[in-house]
Specification:
Largest sheet: 6 strands, antiparallel
Number of strands: 43
Number of helices: 7
Distance between the termini: 76 Å
Radius of gyration: 32 Å
Strand content: 35-45%
Structural class: mainly beta
């Protein structure tokens, strides 16, 4: 066993030499100035394994992190401060395990493929003070895999919080030839449906295929897969919140023979990423070769783009030089600069096993010439599921492939600072409230938000929190919704670039009506009071429920009638709500206090007897066969003059 397992170092390549290498590696006519700015290579003990569909890195708390096997004791946490690697605690003791990671902003999920029949899922919380990850209760859990799975299981999370994972059953003679998706069935992700759903069947055993998964468009989970014998790349999606087995019909992204006319457009090398505007970007390798051992690794990498409307467009070649053998792609989207980056291994003699990087505009794809990413020959590159930006840059890693003394080679790309975009506001949540409501948090959904975006309410800045580039939240004060009407909600991005978004109206309804409190919190706001409202006011008065400060309290506090309340909810308010419900008094617009604080005398509510009676009226009863609640008429005499204030017909009424 090596005793210096935690030692790390950086390989420093002089800039002049690096520039010369990038300019002269079989492309002497090209200038190196087109290459992105990159750090020196770094190295640490460890290994990355096939297949490149998994993502073993993530960015959190100003640092790049990774989950890698050290090729000795198991899979460990790694952090990469200042382009140096630090090995952390062990995650899983399986040295040969293949991890896929997902950082959702709160929790880290690590799914480790261990065999054709087993994966293990870990869930960690993060402590920013100590910069450590802690295993959550109930984890790890084992996920049985069906049908002799190919060596990768990858996962993502939808907008409801459900985790999804996909894999293919095409490894070995016992494989079932299915593309499968499985999902979590509990909010804490400890319970799963591992039988799952088959997205496509009929794949050929021992012809390795791969599937990849991503959440896109704000409300969809998509899965893409290869099918080499059928000469197809397929895709299906599921809308968040629908039944787990409800999936779209198959979309055929590409089919047939590659442009050389030798082999299929499909191979088991895929990478997929979502853009904030709903588009999908896919890099896929074809298997366009004659199938002989001398040419079996030949093929091209292609970029496919699915529009937000669901149409797969024309494909774009990434490395057109037929002497090169690009393979095992990693796709990263720099959404701030509207650039797509592809990192891949080159298995050709001229590529010498190095990894390369190429990039293109996300709007008009046309790749620049590839640049050397790792000077050291490496394979199986990996990076993150996250979209990248100039703050985080790009970090990717690959390994040297010597299983006895393997090294992980890592390198970062410095992304150019981008002008802030002009934000676009799409929707608000909530989108309305009633006048007099309490302060609340407003969620603004859209595109182009940055870390210092500011939400404006009728042109005035509000305290804003950045969630991601499609969502910000703002604190709205009670004074902002004190009167009915509408408020213009915009988002402002500061310079450089930036600007003011479109305006979306937030509706503030009239303050409602006295006694109208059901359903909570805004009532029906239709000018009438029902038995349900009467019961809810009674629950407030009895202390069974607490009204929210603002409009709800104001509407529940409806006695004395002539002052529209007195800042205290009591049995008098319950009686008055009952008179409104019985039609004995007209229902006025809400007014009066919006928070507790009144002290006017209320004789019938000041005794313990009346409070107890109220709770008996509310809680003592019987359920009829129809499920309605029958209040017992025998209780009506327990409150002084109750039968004069509220008719027996209402007390005995079914509601």
């Amino acid at each position: 066993m090596r005793t210096d397992r935690k030692s790390v170092f950086a390989i420093s390549v002089p800039i002049a030499v690096l520039t010369l290498v990038q300019a002269l590696v079989f492309m002497p006519h090209l200038a190196s100035g087109q290459c992105p700015t990159m750090s020196d290579e770094g190295s640490t003990f460890g290994i990355t394994r096939f297949n490149a569909v998994k993502a073993q890195m993530w960015y959190n708390d100003g640092l790049w992190w990774g989950a890698f096997s050290d090729n000795d004791t198991g899979i460990h946490f790694y952090s990469f401060p200042n382009n140096a690697a630090t090995q952390g605690p062990i995650i899983d003791g399986n040295v040969l395990g293949i991890p896929d990671t997902l950082w959702d902003g709160t929790n880290l999920f690590v799914a480790v493929w261990k065999s054709v029949s087993l994966a293990t899922l870990y869930k960690f919380s993060y402590d920013s003070g100590t910069q450590t990850y802690t295993l959550r209760p109930g984890f790890p859990i084992n996920l049985p895999l069906n049908g002799s799975s190919t060596s990768a299981i990858v996962l993502d999370k939808d907008s409801t919080g459900k985790l999804w994972a996909t894999y293919t059953g095409t490894q070995g003679g016992l494989s079932d030839g299915n593309v499968r998706v499985i999902w979590s069935t509990s909010a804490d992700h400890t319970a799963w449906d591992t039988t799952g759903f088959v997205l496509e069947s009929g794949l050929v055993p021992n012809t390795l295929e791969i599937s990849a998964i991503t959440h896109f468009g704000g409300n969809k989970i998509g899965v893409v897969w290869s099918n080499q014998p059928a000469k197809q790349i397929g895709f299906r999606f599921h809308t968040d919140g629908q039944g787990e087995t409800s999936w779209s019909t198959k979309e055929i992204i590409d089919s047939g023979i590659g442009p050389r006319g030798l082999g299929p457009v499909a191979d088991d090398h895929l990478a997929i990423k979502p853009a904030p505007d709903g588009r999908l970007f896919l890099v896929a390798k074809d298997n366009d070769n004659d199938g002989t051992p001398a040419h079996a690794t030949e093929g091209r990498l292609w970029l496919y783009i699915r529009t937000a409307a669901g149409v797969w467009g024309q494909k774009t070649i990434i490395q057109p030089d037929l002497s090169q053998q690009p393979t095992r792609p990693v796709l990263l989207l720099d959404t701030a600069n509207n650039e797509a980056y592809v990192i891949y291994s080159d298995a050709s003699p001229s590529g010498s096993g190095r990894s390369f990087i190429a990039h293109t505009s996300m709007t008009t794809p046309s790749f620049d010439f590839p640049c050397v990413f790792t000077i050291t020959p490496t394979s199986n590159p990996t990076s993150t599921k996250q979209n990248v930006n100039p703050t985080m840059g790009i970090m990717a890693a690959a390994s040297t492939g010597a299983t006895g003394s393997n090294d992980i080679i890592f390198r970062s790309v410095i992304l150019p600072a981008a002008d802030n975009p002009v934000p676009v506001v799409g929707s608000l949540s909530p989108s309305s409230t009633s006048a007099g409501s309490a302060a609340f948090t407003l969620t603004v959904n859209g595109t182009g938000f940055v870390s210092n975006s500011v939400v404006r309410w009728n042109g005035a800045d509000r305290t804003t929190s950045f969630v991601n580039d499609t969502q910000v939240t703002a604190q709205i004060a009670a004074a902002d919704v004190s009167s009915s009407g509408s408020a213009a909600v915009t988002v402002f991005n500061p310079a450089p670039g930036g600007g003011l978004s479109n305006s979306v109206n937030f509706s503030i309804a009239a303050g409602g009506f006295e006694g109208d409190v059901s359903p909570r919190p805004n009532g029906n706001n239709n000018g009438s009071v029902s038995i349900s409202d009467w019961v809810q006011v009674g629950r407030f008065a009895a202390g069974l429920d607490t009204p929210a400060a603002g409009g709800e309290f104001q509407r529940a506090d409806c006695a004395p009638k002539n002052t529209l309340g007195n800042g205290s909810i009591s049995i008098s308010d319950w009686v008055q709500a009952g008179r409104y419900a019985a039609g004995l008094d007209p229902v006025p617009a809400a007014g009066g206090p919006t928070t507790p604080g009144g002290s006017a005398p209320q004789p019938e509510a000041s005794t313990a007897q009346s409070s107890a009676v109220l709770q008996r009226v509310l809680l003592v009863g019987q359920r009829s066969t129809s499920g309605s609640l029958q209040l017992l008429p025998s209780l009506r005499g327990d409150v002084t003059n109750f039968d004069k204030l509220l008719p027996l017909s209402l007390v005995a009424k079914t509601f």
